[in-house]
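Reviewer 2 asked us to include a model.

Predict the structure of this chain.
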Amino acid sequence: MVNQRVKPILVALALFLGLFAFGQRANAAEPNYVISTDATYAPFDFQDKNNEYIGIDQDILKEVAKRNHFTYTLKPMSFNAAAQMVANGQADGIIAGMAITDERKQVYDVSDPYYKTGVAWITKKGSKINSLSELKGKTVALKSGTAASNYGLSLQKKYGFKVKYFNDTDTMYNDVANGNSAATFEDMPVIQYAIKNGLKLEIKNPNNPGNAGAYGFFVKKGQNPQLIADFNKTLKEMKADGTYQKIVDKYLKSDQKTFTGSTEDNKTTWGILKSNKTAFFNGLVETIELTVFAIILASLWGILLGTMGVSQSKFLRGLSNTIIYAFRGLPLMVLAFFIYIGLPGVIGTKIPAFTAGLLTLILNEGAYTGAFVRGGFEAVDRGQMEAAQSLGLPYGKAMSKVIIPQGLKIMVPSFVNQFIITLKDTSILSAIGILELTQTGTLIVARNSQGFRVWAIIGIMYMIVITLLTWLSNWLEKRLNK
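Predicted model (structure tokens):
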């Protein structure tokens, strides 16, 4: 009887996930490259006021695609995740203001340099720190995985400062601007753009950049040689016909309001909400979709695990305990990176970000659900089972008719709490590029540098949805307990 109850759940889960996998395979036949990027790296990669991905990198990429007659799907996410996607075969290439280094050449094939750069060291505007030696004993903020970060780290021993790491550029900048860190290291054109856009930081070595280098377009080593060849050929053509210089001047010499929207809009919370209403709405919809699907499927998976946990079979009980222990013990972000970035390198199949995020939530939230479901069933008085069996009911029917209905009523408060946790946990999936509310906020802040107002809006939106979800859950609880 228990097995008959399990089959529909497994079939529904397989069909649901199969829809995403099928969609991915259906598009695979199109001449389309998957390109990853870090969309918080203005003026090379960022969103404009219309939520379109623009920048020096993006305009170059569009021109390469146009002249070589291919299309591409852009995957914006944190820099480290974007690089790992290419290294593990999830993406065909990465363009993200990525510096060319000997270490990276061991893992990737790289194009000809398309932009020369150097590293600036930066403090809060008005800071009395004017030399690197004055950083001794203080904390320096670094963005993990970048060449600027490596350069800063190379100076740590000499100048005796401490370091802490961030995954996105804007958070690192604001950590320094707010005085939490004394300084940071960043590529010169990137920090110059941010300061023009109103960020209250100060470059300490404007005429003497360190670690001079260049940016390149990267693909996995030994893969996509034609893509590298097309990029190099088009880059030479663009430099010869003036297109390249027009792109660079467009972002480094133009009025920044051209891309970020009206300065007046950024001065008020209402202005930011009004000018970014479409982005906020789309992020909210993505968050709600993830939450609804995850709640339904994780609940079904958790009920199955909980039922297995009180089974008469030692094998099923052991399997349930093992699954619950394993997935409750894994941090959600680690699990998300494993499924989205690590697993495809093993199985040889790309996993769409939404599917990877949903699987992450199902496995993690389902494990917690399974634990309290098992506890709920065990909380039902043992005499109920004994009475049912004394009336001739087999174990499976006694569970489905007697124990499970009573146990589920006991668990309703736990389900309500888990639903709220699931909603909040969707924010972690921004790390793999899912454009939900948190990632939406990150992209908007990268464009307008209004962290306080943007995150206040995001926080209020989460609170409203959580309140509505709580009301719905409480209503269901009252209906079930009637």
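The CA atoms of residues 329 and 367 lie 9 Å apart. The two ends are 28 Å apart (CA to CA). We have added this to the supplementary material.
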